[in-house]
Amino acid sequence: MAKTYDVVVIGGGPAGYVAAIRCAQLGLATACVEKWLTPQGEPALGGTCLNVGCIPSKTLLESSEHFHRATHGFAAHGIRIDGAVSVDVGQLQARKQTIVAQLTGGIAQLFKANQVTWLQGRGKLLAERQVEVTRHDGSVEIVEGDNIILAAGSLPIDIPAAPRDDVRIVDSTGGLAFTEVPKRLGVIGAGVIGLELGSVWSRLGAEVVVLEAMDEFLAAVDQQIAKDALRQFKKQGLDIRLGARVTATRSDGDAVTVHYKDKDGDHELGVDKLLVCVGRRPATDGLADPDADLELTERGFIHVDDECRTNLPGVWAIGDCVRGPMLAHKGSEEGVMVAELIAGRHGHMNYDTIPWVIYTNPEIAWVGKTEQALKAEGVPYRVGTFPFAANGRAKAMDAAAGLVKLIGHADTDRLLGAHIVGPMASELIQEMVLAMAFGASVEDLQLTIHGHPTLAEAVHEAALSVHGRALHKVN
Questions:
Q1: Do residue 340 and residue 373 come from a single domain?
Q2: What is the pLDDT of residue 370?
Q3: How confident is the model over 279-314, as pLDDT tens digits?
């Protein structure tokens, strides 16, 4: 007879493991099915984010930033290094793996502490809220759940023009695992992943060429912020070519030739490694047995309502495999909401105040509406900006590029959007997320005292600028 749980979660990434922990905290007998194996063949929790996504990429970004400062920034501070500065890619990768192992191991400990049962293997939804678990040794177990939460995550999108060989032509996972710095790196896609990984290897000495099919850089970002960021990236040496559509690639074992087309015609580009980062797709292939009758969209996402209910009673879906941004924190909060709803409590998810971050240097972060979106919607608004070049803390940090931009409703003064390109944008944006969550006005930010000298003063000045009251720039 199949073992029965109150909740069975399929997927142990940021959406699934958080959902499982919260369900257990609420007194529900919970199991989580996760198939991930490390390169050493060891089972691991955390999904893409912790194993080959958010955490390892930020670790490499931090290491590459230290190297870049040592080679380009220390002299201005009077710090001299005698002899050449070199990078040990092996040690850099070992540090990354140590941090990943610490965090994934931490989730396993949290499962134990909260009495979540970890079922190691691949989960498949069957009819009548049953789950087939295929373990790594090939054995199969059937478990049942009064509720099932699908948190299958996502996978990199492959493109026919650049078939992956995982040696010369790689996806984001391969781009995180290079054992040496490529002399010349090609990147297909100037999105979040392409820019972050391109930045890592550029700082470590690679010549990086980014090919982006769209004519507009970071089209989803406020365009004033995007254009400022593009200037900074080009100044750093990133060769970003817009309107460049890759048509074919050829790998001869030692190099890759990339054929692409832009407004000026056909071109060839020779690189040592090619990183394909054109987006991600929901990992729903084989997730549900046809007899389960789970409804998917045309693009393979699981169809859900505003509270993440699927078309099947007692079956929920969260994270990258459902509509909305593919962001770890979005999936985690959906997991908490669903856990609360299953337990008969009130679940809450505010999709209007989800922060976005690109961890380049300068960082890019935003929440709420862009100026171009408000124009298209016909919403009256006011804009205020403040440059980090006029911020004392940013100057002291040698990080004075970029700006803060706030957008308020022209009639009600409610904060509608916040956009930053500059130092620690990922941290600064959280103030505006909180402000928007509480329905704050621009004036509320104006009347809030910000410490001096801090980067956050740029937020205060941008708020003052919305009403033409900035104190440290000419209005």
A1: no
A2: 98
A3: 999 999 999 999 999 999 999 999 999 999 999 999
| Residue 462 lies inside a defined structural domain of this protein | yes
The string of DSSP codes covering 233-259 is: HHHHT-EEEET-EEEEEEE-SS-EEEE
Tell me if 475 is assigned to some domain: no
Separation of alpha carbons 198 and 208, rounded Å: 6
The verdict on 341 and 358 lying in the same domain is: no
Q: Is residue 473 part of a domain?
A: no
Could you give the 3-state DSSP secondary structure of residue 425? helix
| pLDDT in the model for residue 82 | 86
Same structural domain, 186 and 119: no
- Is 286 annotated to bind ligand? no
Q: Judge if 328 and 398 occupy the same domain.
A: no
Is the Cβ–Cβ distance between 287 and 199 less than 8 Å?
no
What residues of the chain score a pLDDT lower than 70?
none
114 and 199 in a single domain? The answer is no
The predicted pLDDT at position 249 comes to 98
Is 300 within any annotated ligand binding site?
no
Q: Per residue in 9-68, pLDDT tens? A: 999 999 999 999 999 999 999 999 999 999 999 999 999 999 999 999 999 999 999 999
Q: Distance (Å, rounded) from C-alpha 197 to C-alpha 183?
A: 15
Return d(Cα 148, Cα 128) in angstroms, integer: 10
Give residue 382's domain range: 354-466
Residue 253 is predicted with a pLDDT of 78
Angle between helix 328-342 and 14-25 (nearest 10): 30
* Number of domains the chain contains: 3
Question: How big is the CA angle at 365 (ends 170 and 198), to the nearest 5 degrees?
Answer: 25
Question: Are 21 and 104 within one domain?
Answer: yes
Is 320 part of any known ligand binding site? yes
Q: Is-contact 153 11, C-beta < 8 A?
A: yes
Q: What CATH number did the domain enclosing 274 receive? A: 3.50.50.60
Question: Is 43 buried (19+), middle (13-18) or exposed (0-12) by CB count in 10 A?
Answer: middle
- Which strands make up the sheet holding 207-212, listed edge to edge? 169-170, 273-276, 184-188, 207-212, 239-242
Same domain for 310 and 210?
no
Shared domain check, 260 and 173: yes
* Residue 254: predicted pLDDT: 87
Q: What is the pTM of this model?
A: 0.97
Q: Is 368 annotated as a binding residue?
A: no
Write down the pLDDT at residue 1: 75
Catalytic positions are 452
The answer to the question of residue 220 being in a domain is: yes
